[in-house]
User: What shape does this take?
Amino acid sequence: MAPRFWYRPPGPVLRLLGPLVPGRRPAAAPERMPVPVVAVVSLSVGGTGKTPTVIALAQRLAMQGRKVHVMASGPGVPFRVDERGHAAQDVGDEPLLIAAFAPTWVAEDPHEGIRAAAGEGAEIVVLDGCEPTGEVAADLRVVVEDAHRGFGNGFAWPLGPLKQRLASGLTPADLLITIGPEAAQARFLEAWADRVPCRHLAGRLEPLPTGMDWNGLDVVAFAGIGAPERFFATLRGLGANLLRAQALSDHQELTSALMSRLENEARLRGAQLVTTEKDAVRLPRAFRQKVVSLPVRLEFDDWGPLDQALP
Assistant: This one.
Protein backbone atom coordinates (compact mmCIF):
# COMPACT_ATOMS: atom_id res chain seq x y z
CA MET A 1 0.00 0.00 0.00
CA ALA A 2 1.34 3.42 -0.95
CA PRO A 3 2.24 5.80 1.90
CA ARG A 4 -0.47 8.39 2.45
CA PHE A 5 1.97 11.30 2.35
CA TRP A 6 2.67 10.53 -1.31
CA TYR A 7 -0.72 12.00 -2.17
CA ARG A 8 -0.81 14.93 0.26
CA PRO A 9 0.53 18.46 -0.20
CA PRO A 10 4.20 18.27 0.84
CA GLY A 11 5.28 19.75 4.16
CA PRO A 12 8.43 21.87 4.65
CA VAL A 13 10.77 18.88 5.14
CA LEU A 14 9.51 17.14 2.01
CA ARG A 15 9.71 20.35 -0.02
CA LEU A 16 13.36 20.58 1.05
CA LEU A 17 14.34 16.94 0.43
CA GLY A 18 12.02 16.00 -2.44
CA PRO A 19 13.85 17.87 -5.23
CA LEU A 20 17.08 16.09 -4.28
CA VAL A 21 15.76 12.60 -5.07
CA PRO A 22 16.30 11.75 -8.77
CA GLY A 23 14.46 8.41 -8.92
CA ARG A 24 15.51 5.84 -11.50
CA ARG A 25 18.18 6.86 -13.99
CA PRO A 26 17.19 6.97 -17.67
CA ALA A 27 19.03 4.93 -20.26
CA ALA A 28 21.92 6.80 -21.88
CA ALA A 29 21.54 5.75 -25.52
CA PRO A 30 18.15 4.44 -26.69
CA GLU A 31 18.45 2.06 -29.63
CA ARG A 32 16.44 2.43 -32.84
CA MET A 33 14.34 -0.63 -33.74
CA PRO A 34 13.61 -2.16 -37.20
CA VAL A 35 9.88 -1.28 -36.94
CA PRO A 36 8.03 1.70 -35.43
CA VAL A 37 7.55 1.46 -31.66
CA VAL A 38 4.80 2.98 -29.51
CA ALA A 39 6.01 2.94 -25.89
CA VAL A 40 3.31 3.06 -23.20
CA VAL A 41 4.73 4.05 -19.83
CA SER A 42 3.68 5.48 -16.49
CA LEU A 43 5.69 7.83 -14.30
CA SER A 44 3.75 6.75 -11.21
CA VAL A 45 4.08 3.44 -9.41
CA GLY A 46 0.87 1.47 -9.02
CA GLY A 47 -2.11 1.15 -11.31
CA THR A 48 -2.68 3.95 -13.80
CA GLY A 49 -4.67 2.28 -16.60
CA LYS A 50 -1.67 1.30 -18.69
CA THR A 51 -3.03 -2.13 -19.71
CA PRO A 52 -6.35 -0.77 -21.08
CA THR A 53 -4.31 1.84 -22.95
CA VAL A 54 -2.09 -0.82 -24.55
CA ILE A 55 -5.20 -2.77 -25.60
CA ALA A 56 -6.85 0.36 -27.00
CA LEU A 57 -3.76 1.28 -29.02
CA ALA A 58 -3.38 -2.25 -30.37
CA GLN A 59 -7.03 -2.34 -31.41
CA ARG A 60 -6.83 1.12 -32.96
CA LEU A 61 -3.78 0.21 -35.03
CA ALA A 62 -5.39 -3.06 -36.13
CA MET A 63 -8.48 -1.13 -37.25
CA GLN A 64 -6.17 0.90 -39.48
CA GLY A 65 -4.95 -2.28 -41.14
CA ARG A 66 -1.59 -2.36 -39.34
CA LYS A 67 -0.02 -5.65 -38.28
CA VAL A 68 0.52 -4.74 -34.64
CA HIS A 69 2.20 -6.83 -31.96
CA VAL A 70 2.68 -6.06 -28.26
CA MET A 71 5.94 -6.54 -26.35
CA ALA A 72 5.78 -6.89 -22.55
CA SER A 73 8.60 -7.22 -20.06
CA GLY A 74 9.26 -10.56 -18.44
CA PRO A 75 12.07 -13.00 -17.68
CA GLY A 76 14.03 -14.94 -20.27
CA VAL A 77 14.35 -14.99 -24.03
CA PRO A 78 11.53 -13.73 -26.25
CA PHE A 79 8.50 -15.98 -26.63
CA ARG A 80 5.01 -15.41 -27.94
CA VAL A 81 2.14 -15.71 -25.48
CA ASP A 82 -0.41 -18.43 -26.22
CA GLU A 83 -3.65 -17.21 -24.66
CA ARG A 84 -5.05 -20.74 -24.64
CA GLY A 85 -1.92 -22.66 -23.71
CA HIS A 86 -0.25 -20.39 -21.15
CA ALA A 87 -1.38 -19.59 -17.62
CA ALA A 88 -0.99 -16.30 -15.79
CA GLN A 89 1.75 -17.77 -13.61
CA ASP A 90 3.71 -18.60 -16.78
CA VAL A 91 3.59 -15.22 -18.53
CA GLY A 92 1.90 -12.73 -16.16
CA ASP A 93 -1.74 -11.70 -16.06
CA GLU A 94 -1.35 -8.55 -18.17
CA PRO A 95 0.40 -10.21 -21.17
CA LEU A 96 -2.12 -13.07 -21.02
CA LEU A 97 -5.01 -10.59 -21.13
CA ILE A 98 -3.46 -8.49 -23.90
CA ALA A 99 -2.81 -11.62 -25.99
CA ALA A 100 -6.57 -11.90 -26.53
CA PHE A 101 -6.42 -8.66 -28.55
CA ALA A 102 -3.07 -8.77 -30.36
CA PRO A 103 -0.05 -11.07 -30.81
CA THR A 104 1.91 -10.54 -27.60
CA TRP A 105 5.53 -11.25 -26.73
CA VAL A 106 7.35 -11.46 -23.40
CA ALA A 107 11.08 -10.88 -23.11
CA GLU A 108 13.63 -9.67 -20.59
CA ASP A 109 15.45 -7.66 -23.27
CA PRO A 110 12.96 -5.41 -25.11
CA HIS A 111 15.28 -5.12 -28.11
CA GLU A 112 15.25 -8.88 -28.62
CA GLY A 113 11.50 -9.02 -28.09
CA ILE A 114 10.79 -6.33 -30.67
CA ARG A 115 13.13 -7.96 -33.19
CA ALA A 116 11.39 -11.29 -32.63
CA ALA A 117 8.01 -9.66 -33.23
CA ALA A 118 9.30 -7.97 -36.39
CA GLY A 119 10.65 -11.31 -37.59
CA GLU A 120 7.14 -12.77 -37.24
CA GLY A 121 5.54 -10.05 -39.35
CA ALA A 122 4.89 -7.17 -36.95
CA GLU A 123 4.76 -3.85 -38.79
CA ILE A 124 4.52 -1.84 -35.56
CA VAL A 125 5.05 -2.79 -31.90
CA VAL A 126 3.32 -1.43 -28.81
CA LEU A 127 5.84 -1.66 -25.98
CA ASP A 128 4.40 -2.26 -22.51
CA GLY A 129 6.28 -2.42 -19.25
CA CYS A 130 9.40 -0.39 -20.03
CA GLU A 131 10.83 2.46 -18.00
CA PRO A 132 9.61 6.05 -18.56
CA THR A 133 12.82 6.80 -20.45
CA GLY A 134 14.02 3.39 -21.56
CA GLU A 135 16.57 1.69 -23.74
CA VAL A 136 14.34 1.62 -26.83
CA ALA A 137 14.00 4.64 -29.10
CA ALA A 138 10.22 5.05 -29.38
CA ASP A 139 8.52 6.68 -32.36
CA LEU A 140 5.69 7.66 -30.00
CA ARG A 141 6.07 7.77 -26.22
CA VAL A 142 2.76 7.78 -24.34
CA VAL A 143 2.62 8.46 -20.60
CA VAL A 144 -0.50 7.15 -18.84
CA GLU A 145 -1.61 8.43 -15.44
CA ASP A 146 -4.62 8.18 -13.12
CA ALA A 147 -6.47 11.52 -13.17
CA HIS A 148 -7.62 10.98 -9.55
CA ARG A 149 -4.10 10.67 -8.14
CA GLY A 150 -2.31 12.83 -10.67
CA PHE A 151 1.41 12.92 -9.91
CA GLY A 152 0.81 12.71 -6.15
CA ASN A 153 3.08 15.10 -4.27
CA GLY A 154 5.22 15.48 -7.40
CA PHE A 155 8.34 13.82 -5.99
CA ALA A 156 10.25 10.68 -6.92
CA TRP A 157 10.32 7.42 -4.97
CA PRO A 158 10.72 6.91 -2.01
CA LEU A 159 9.52 10.42 -1.11
CA GLY A 160 6.73 10.31 -3.70
CA PRO A 161 5.00 8.00 -6.18
CA LEU A 162 7.05 8.92 -9.25
CA LYS A 163 9.68 6.67 -10.78
CA GLN A 164 11.79 9.71 -11.62
CA ARG A 165 11.59 13.47 -11.42
CA LEU A 166 8.51 14.85 -13.09
CA ALA A 167 10.34 17.13 -15.54
CA SER A 168 12.77 14.44 -16.72
CA GLY A 169 9.94 11.94 -17.06
CA LEU A 170 7.66 14.20 -19.10
CA THR A 171 10.30 15.84 -21.29
CA PRO A 172 10.65 12.87 -23.69
CA ALA A 173 6.88 12.23 -23.73
CA ASP A 174 4.91 12.91 -26.91
CA LEU A 175 1.51 12.41 -25.33
CA LEU A 176 0.05 12.30 -21.82
CA ILE A 177 -3.18 10.36 -21.29
CA THR A 178 -4.97 10.80 -17.97
CA ILE A 179 -7.75 8.35 -17.16
CA GLY A 180 -10.71 9.22 -14.98
CA PRO A 181 -14.10 10.93 -14.86
CA GLU A 182 -14.68 14.57 -15.75
CA ALA A 183 -14.36 15.89 -12.19
CA ALA A 184 -11.02 14.15 -11.69
CA GLN A 185 -9.77 15.45 -15.04
CA ALA A 186 -10.65 19.02 -14.00
CA ARG A 187 -8.73 18.63 -10.72
CA PHE A 188 -5.76 17.20 -12.61
CA LEU A 189 -5.63 20.18 -14.96
CA GLU A 190 -5.91 22.63 -12.09
CA ALA A 191 -2.99 21.01 -10.26
CA TRP A 192 -0.66 20.00 -13.10
CA ALA A 193 -1.50 21.65 -16.43
CA ASP A 194 1.33 24.18 -16.20
CA ARG A 195 3.90 21.38 -15.72
CA VAL A 196 2.85 19.24 -18.70
CA PRO A 197 4.99 20.10 -21.76
CA CYS A 198 3.37 17.65 -24.19
CA ARG A 199 -0.07 17.15 -25.66
CA HIS A 200 -2.65 15.93 -23.14
CA LEU A 201 -5.71 13.73 -23.76
CA ALA A 202 -8.39 12.93 -21.18
CA GLY A 203 -9.74 9.37 -21.36
CA ARG A 204 -12.11 7.27 -19.31
CA LEU A 205 -12.69 3.57 -18.71
CA GLU A 206 -16.17 2.50 -19.77
CA PRO A 207 -17.68 -0.92 -19.06
CA LEU A 208 -18.56 -2.99 -22.09
CA PRO A 209 -22.21 -3.99 -22.42
CA THR A 210 -22.36 -7.71 -21.71
CA GLY A 211 -26.10 -8.21 -21.30
CA MET A 212 -25.69 -8.37 -17.51
CA ASP A 213 -28.30 -6.38 -15.57
CA TRP A 214 -26.23 -4.86 -12.76
CA ASN A 215 -28.92 -2.57 -11.38
CA GLY A 216 -29.78 -3.74 -7.85
CA LEU A 217 -27.71 -6.91 -8.18
CA ASP A 218 -26.08 -8.03 -4.91
CA VAL A 219 -22.39 -8.72 -5.55
CA VAL A 220 -19.26 -9.75 -3.73
CA ALA A 221 -16.52 -8.04 -5.71
CA PHE A 222 -12.76 -8.52 -5.54
CA ALA A 223 -9.91 -6.88 -7.42
CA GLY A 224 -6.15 -7.39 -7.38
CA ILE A 225 -5.20 -4.43 -9.54
CA GLY A 226 -3.22 -1.27 -8.87
CA ALA A 227 -6.33 0.85 -8.14
CA PRO A 228 -9.14 -1.52 -7.05
CA GLU A 229 -11.29 1.40 -5.90
CA ARG A 230 -11.78 2.35 -9.56
CA PHE A 231 -13.33 -1.04 -10.26
CA PHE A 232 -15.63 -0.86 -7.25
CA ALA A 233 -16.74 2.66 -8.24
CA THR A 234 -17.57 1.37 -11.74
CA LEU A 235 -19.76 -1.38 -10.30
CA ARG A 236 -21.58 1.09 -8.07
CA GLY A 237 -22.05 3.39 -11.04
CA LEU A 238 -23.80 0.54 -12.86
CA GLY A 239 -26.20 0.18 -9.93
CA ALA A 240 -24.71 -2.95 -8.34
CA ASN A 241 -25.14 -3.41 -4.59
CA LEU A 242 -21.66 -4.20 -3.25
CA LEU A 243 -22.04 -6.41 -0.18
CA ARG A 244 -18.26 -6.72 -0.08
CA ALA A 245 -15.54 -4.87 -1.98
CA GLN A 246 -12.44 -6.97 -1.36
CA ALA A 247 -9.31 -5.07 -2.38
CA LEU A 248 -6.33 -7.35 -2.99
CA SER A 249 -2.73 -6.42 -3.67
CA ASP A 250 -1.75 -5.94 -7.32
CA HIS A 251 -1.28 -9.33 -9.03
CA GLN A 252 -2.13 -11.16 -5.78
CA GLU A 253 -2.45 -14.92 -6.22
CA LEU A 254 -6.07 -16.05 -6.23
CA THR A 255 -5.58 -19.17 -4.14
CA SER A 256 -8.24 -21.83 -3.77
CA ALA A 257 -8.51 -20.93 -0.07
CA LEU A 258 -9.16 -17.26 -0.84
CA MET A 259 -11.65 -18.04 -3.57
CA SER A 260 -13.47 -20.60 -1.41
CA ARG A 261 -13.90 -18.00 1.33
CA LEU A 262 -15.30 -15.45 -1.13
CA GLU A 263 -17.51 -18.08 -2.76
CA ASN A 264 -18.96 -19.13 0.60
CA GLU A 265 -19.72 -15.53 1.52
CA ALA A 266 -21.40 -14.89 -1.80
CA ARG A 267 -23.49 -18.06 -1.51
CA LEU A 268 -24.62 -17.31 2.05
CA ARG A 269 -25.63 -13.77 1.07
CA GLY A 270 -27.22 -14.71 -2.24
CA ALA A 271 -24.70 -12.61 -4.18
CA GLN A 272 -22.78 -12.89 -7.44
CA LEU A 273 -18.98 -13.07 -7.39
CA VAL A 274 -17.51 -10.36 -9.64
CA THR A 275 -13.95 -9.40 -10.58
CA THR A 276 -11.95 -7.50 -13.18
CA GLU A 277 -10.98 -8.79 -16.60
CA LYS A 278 -7.32 -8.88 -15.53
CA ASP A 279 -8.05 -10.83 -12.34
CA ALA A 280 -10.21 -13.29 -14.26
CA VAL A 281 -7.21 -14.68 -16.13
CA ARG A 282 -5.66 -15.64 -12.76
CA LEU A 283 -8.68 -17.54 -11.46
CA PRO A 284 -8.16 -21.18 -10.50
CA ARG A 285 -9.81 -23.39 -13.10
CA ALA A 286 -12.50 -24.60 -10.66
CA PHE A 287 -13.78 -21.05 -10.19
CA ARG A 288 -13.80 -19.76 -13.77
CA GLN A 289 -17.48 -20.55 -14.31
CA LYS A 290 -18.49 -19.12 -10.93
CA VAL A 291 -17.13 -15.58 -11.28
CA VAL A 292 -18.42 -12.88 -13.62
CA SER A 293 -15.83 -10.45 -14.99
CA LEU A 294 -16.59 -6.86 -15.94
CA PRO A 295 -14.58 -5.76 -19.00
CA VAL A 296 -13.78 -2.07 -19.47
CA ARG A 297 -12.32 -0.21 -22.44
CA LEU A 298 -10.54 3.09 -22.78
CA GLU A 299 -12.63 5.73 -24.54
CA PHE A 300 -12.09 9.32 -25.69
CA ASP A 301 -14.58 11.92 -26.81
CA ASP A 302 -12.38 12.41 -29.88
CA TRP A 303 -9.93 9.78 -31.13
CA GLY A 304 -8.60 12.12 -33.81
CA PRO A 305 -5.60 13.51 -31.87
CA LEU A 306 -4.49 9.99 -30.97
CA ASP A 307 -4.86 8.75 -34.54
CA GLN A 308 -2.79 11.68 -35.75
CA ALA A 309 -0.04 10.93 -33.23
CA LEU A 310 0.35 7.26 -34.15
CA PRO A 311 3.43 6.55 -36.31
